[in-house]
Amino acid sequence: SGLSVLHFQDLLPALDGDLKTMTFLQEVVDILLAYITESFDRETKVIDFHYPNELLQRNNWELQDEPETLDDILISCRATLKYAIKTAHPRYFNQLSTGLDMVGLAADWLTSTANTNMFTYEVAPVFVLLEYVTLKKMREIIGWEDGRGDGIFSPGGAISNMYAMLLARFKMFPEVKEKGMSSVPRLAAFTSEHSHFSIKKGAAALGIGTESVICIKADESGKMIPADLERKILEAKQKGFVPFFVSATAGTTVYGAFDPLIAISDICKKYQVWFHVDGAWGGSLIMSRMHKWKLDGVERSVLKLTWNPHKMMAVPLQCSALLVREEGLMQNCNQMHACYLFQQDKHYDLSYDTGDKALQCGRHVDIFKLWLMWRAKGTIGFEAQIDKCLELSEYLYNKIKDREGYEMVFNGKPQHTNVCFWYLPPGMRYMEDKEEKKKRLHKVAPVIKARMMEYGTTMVSYQPQGDKVNFFRMVISNPAATFEDIDFLIEEIERLGQDL
Amino acid sequence: SGLSVLHFQDLLPALDGDLKTMTFLQEVVDILLAYITESFDRETKVIDFHYPNELLQRNNWELQDEPETLDDILISCRATLKYAIKTAHPRYFNQLSTGLDMVGLAADWLTSTANTNMFTYEVAPVFVLLEYVTLKKMREIIGWEDGRGDGIFSPGGAISNMYAMLLARFKMFPEVKEKGMSSVPRLAAFTSEHSHFSIKKGAAALGIGTESVICIKADESGKMIPADLERKILEAKQKGFVPFFVSATAGTTVYGAFDPLIAISDICKKYQVWFHVDGAWGGSLIMSRMHKWKLDGVERSVLKLTWNPHKMMAVPLQCSALLVREEGLMQNCNQMHACYLFQQDKHYDLSYDTGDKALQCGRHVDIFKLWLMWRAKGTIGFEAQIDKCLELSEYLYNKIKDREGYEMVFNGKPQHTNVCFWYLPPGMRYMEDKEEKKKRLHKVAPVIKARMMEYGTTMVSYQPQGDKVNFFRMVISNPAATFEDIDFLIEEIERLGQDL
């Protein structure tokens, strides 16, 4: 293609660089298109796995003083994709974010090409408007009156949750912004023992401290027990702490449990504690008429809700929204009035300069992929996609709950797409010594997982939880998955684990 | 093209969706390629500006229940780009991040296609390795022995600076992680009055409080005055504060000033305060043999350095690195041991599961575009690009410093590409009443800027600073800019401002 004698200087903005640029970019696109087709092909491996030291040696990844040719650059692109995880693969179930949406991908390519920043309307007019339109729509769906409120797209659910805690603290003690935690009594935050680790991470960062995050007991299926919340709020008050923040989870990471939001919100109201819902994983179920009852009470989240469209709605990474009920709160909490960005004498409506309410200065454009996918699917398209994933997970649950060699980690139908189970190899099924059995079972999932990766046939996550030894956590957010892929998964686990 | 009867369900993973997907994505790519060519064309407008309410009405941006056809999706893509800022345009100078690198763009398209997450080697094997390779290279360039140390790519310089402050606090008072700020004495952080607002924003978020950020005086050209730093550290100690953090700036946002790092680091050493360098804007000059003396002393930053390749190195947004000298510190400060991600019984070397040292859980892949551009340019290519921008800015400075109608905001050659100046329209040049002149001059830059945007010919930023009324801050990071574009800018300001 002639690219073997060309270098980056031959591309735009070089004079007469148009044609060479088009050739180069088209070659890259061809590589990407081939990768996409391959990713959806069940005959392809999910991953061509190599250990870190081996992968370091399989290619020259070093950075040099001298430039490479554009042909070399294409070679690097191919090598990178060769060893990448095919996250679009119908049998990739490893994380809460899986799949690759073609409209979302197109939108992300456009976003990269537009290459701008969300801080002001001045530099991102369309994207700022689309964020406005989309956040309003999301608030309407939650059920906040006329879709009123505020919100922001942030770099992931952990940061969204940190925002929520930050806002709750500021709302109760606005002087903390200037004076810091020394002006504030000892605070206490509450969240279930099954909640996401980002609540503790946020508390550590914000100077609240992880010991101020009080863990509330969850029931057998992973839902927060409201009575334990009330008891621990009272206990904290007695010890002189000021309860300021409850983070309920809509869709826990491992079990997919939905905390009872109505009961929790009643307690929050009674003790005047700010009520946040971490719906990073389960928030999207609000788009499903069949499943949204699991989020009943979410509209009472007086302060905010984390909702990650990059998970259950399969929007490309990253796309996480924080929705805030009170207008102006984020602005008051975070603004620093940088006069080089947020000039007050600009010629347009400054309410669209939303950057000062963020913790970030520059902020990546995460909105366009969600917006364009929403246009392509409509609300009903997202609903169908979500319903289908839940249907697949119910299919899996029904198939293994009484199947020989399987044991469910908790009883009853899962509320989200999380299906948590142990696979017991034949030799382990009738062991008498419970402790020995537990010890051996703990090692089964890691070995099967390692074999999955070495064969590259599928990927699913495992972990221990509390006193429960390693179990598989199957989750389905990949719109490419079918009933046949679920069948395959079961057979594959049995094939890879039968000799253990 | 047949797309007018197709919907998203016709695309992959649909059965036989390959061809339709290729057609759709290729159409999108064609739109993007046309936009790219147009963006580099000086005959095109930088922006087709409309006021927010008007832009809301010029297109249907609403989200509906029903899906749209793929043709409609292409129409939305075109509309979005029509009203977008052409950040690649050779005459777009509005922000510190400008330009569009073709290799960086290709890399970002690949990143979107790979659609994965940085938390573990398991799901991002290549990208985790490339982050490792690149951070090591960056540390070598700083001059840390054998490139040892740690680091992370974070969502922007503001978050990188927040990390730095978080690490400094943890290093001095590790109990803060569990016990919060109530276990810590009243802290004081120090930064120059010209530093970036993210230092205060970070202090507010971390529960330190903005009042604990003590502003150090800058000299006439915007550099921190070390004697004032020493005085204020002593003052703070006398008041019972514990000085824990000094953030020096390498390249301030408005003036582009480099704080005297050696003198500051000596003071930090003397008083045992952690020394951070915010090189978000100026850090990249370390890649230039001609300009890196401005960063002399950066290797002494005992703790960390923020360095944003998305600014002066023109890597697509977003790409910000935090480099940390001490190995293990980030991990100790931030880890929460989430057992569903960071299983300790995996089959590969767990030191590559870097996610737990981040504040984020999911983390966008920001490394590939920097890595691929580095391969394409080599270190010497980045150097040439940086040197050229500085050469252009010197050209601008020399051209206007004695030109009729211009006044420089500070004396002497700028250290970075920031050229700060007032343009005085003819009618204002000989005004006797200094106060009246100042008042009128304050209004000149906003009007010229508004006209620039309405004509769409160029964009450059303005702001007041301290007692200085609105002035233009020209910055050059756009590799597409030439001497002719600088000439054009001067003429355009004069054309748009002569009647004021």
Structure description:
- 2 copies of one chain form a homodimer.
- Chain A has 500 residues and is an alpha/beta fold.
- Among the domains of chain A are: 3-86, no CATH class; 110-374, 3-Layer(aba) Sandwich (Aspartate Aminotransferase, domain 2).
- Chain A is 40% helix and 12% strand.
- Chain A has 14 helices and 11 strands.
- The first copy, chain A, has a 7-stranded mixed sheet, with helices on both faces. A 4-stranded antiparallel sheet of chain A has the order 8-9-11-10.
- The interface between A and B is large, with 171 and 172 residues.
- Chains A, B: One of its GO terms (biological process) is gamma-aminobutyrate shunt.
- Chains A, B: GO terms for molecular function: glutamate decarboxylase activity; pyridoxal phosphate binding.
- Chains A, B: Its cofactor is pyridoxal 5'-phosphate.
- Chains A, B: It comes from Oncorhynchus mykiss.
Write the layout of secondary structure elements.
Two copies of one chain form a homodimer.
Chain A: H1 18-39, H2 52-58, H3 70-82, H4 102-114, H5 125-142, E1 150-154, H6 157-172, H7 176-179, E2 187-192, H8 198-205, E3 213-216, H9 226-238, E4 242-249, H10 261-271, E5 274-279, E6 304-307, E7 320-324, H11 329-334, H12 367-400, E8 406-408, E9 419-423, H13 434-455, E10 461-465, E11 468-474, H14 483-497
Parallel strand pairs in A: 2-3, 2-4, 4-5, 5-6
Antiparallel strand pairs in A: 1-7, 6-7, 8-9, 9-11, 10-11
Helix pairs in contact in A: 1-3, 4-12, 5-12, 6-8, 9-10, 12-14, 13-14
